[in-house]
Amino acid sequence: MASENPHPAADLPPTLLDLSTYLLSRVGKTARGRFAERLAERGLRLWDMAVLAALADFGPQAQRDLAARLAIDPSDLAKVADQLAAAGYVQRARDQADRRRVSVSVTEAGRALLAELDAQARAVQDEVLAPLDAGERQVLQELLLRVHRGMGERRGGP
Amino acid sequence: MASENPHPAADLPPTLLDLSTYLLSRVGKTARGRFAERLAERGLRLWDMAVLAALADFGPQAQRDLAARLAIDPSDLAKVADQLAAAGYVQRARDQADRRRVSVSVTEAGRALLAELDAQARAVQDEVLAPLDAGERQVLQELLLRVHRGMGERRGGP
DNA sequence: GTAATTAGTGGGTTGGTACCCACTATAGGC
DNA sequence: GCCTATAGTGGGTACCAACCCACTAATTAC
Q1: Which residues of A touch B9 (CB under 8 A)?
Q2: Residues of A with Cβ-Cβ distance to B27 under 8 angstroms
Q3: Verdict on whether the full-model pTM lies above 0.85
Q4: A81-111 per-position pLDDT tens digit
Q5: Cβ–Cβ of B7/A67 closer than 8 Å?
């Protein structure tokens, strides 16, 4: 999974480097990739963390609501939840009021894992944002947050 | 190819939104996706533009050098070049000094196409960066550029 | 009760990317 | 001339993400 550098380095055309969207896409992909690598070492995927985060932040929820919130296909969420439950990071229980629903909640182990993953994510972030000082990182975060809020939440990854 | 919004909107866990790398990845993916959509309408892919840009910026080159520069597999580049040549956007000619090499150069049509694509890319960028004013976009561009330069150019997309 | 709706799940398909290998043609060392 | 290395190309494989459909179980509407 850890890919060495199969092709030599490159310096890219200014026409592309002048596009913020190009840089955004490239930097974003790299960051995502590096973090995904670390998750893979534990047999986890990005969605796993997204689900844990959503449960920790918003509390127990029915899978359907969780899927809507994360904009993931309910069928795919079922698979993620399955793995997480098998590993003991989440619990699933039939809702007694409406027994079709499965309420998912994060366990203590899940919270602990989330904290660890968050730390790892920040480690990767430090690596990626190394060229920026604390103030600049703050600025970047705020700009990105505003851009993100402005985007119609179509569909993305985790 | 144009995906409607198959799942309802979502508001995401603060734990994730607090990670710049998460935002980077998400915003980048969206931008990339939107631009790719437009390219797809013309039967083009992201690599096509990358190749045109490299040729326009750096002049005619052997495919091998072009592949190294863009960090794409030579075999994959061959396929891209093939399509571009068939459409008349690039020309391929055997290097007379070394007849193994194929020198690729962009045609007038290719330059015209690149200009159009660049305009479209900027249109998408305007859309994505809508929440930011001109000064903020400038700041973002510079921060991203520095981050990008700091990244070991492992491998990415186009 | 019957019909229509909803939640979850299993089993796929599709599209795109990165990657790799075998093969041909040419070049260069000696 | 012979041998090794290199440039390009064709034809794959592997992997992942997004998506979709069919099916079951439970609920609600009438």
Answers
A1: 71, 152-153
A2: 24, 28, 144, 147-148, 151
A3: yes
A4: 999 999 999 999 999 999 999 999 999 999 9
A5: yes
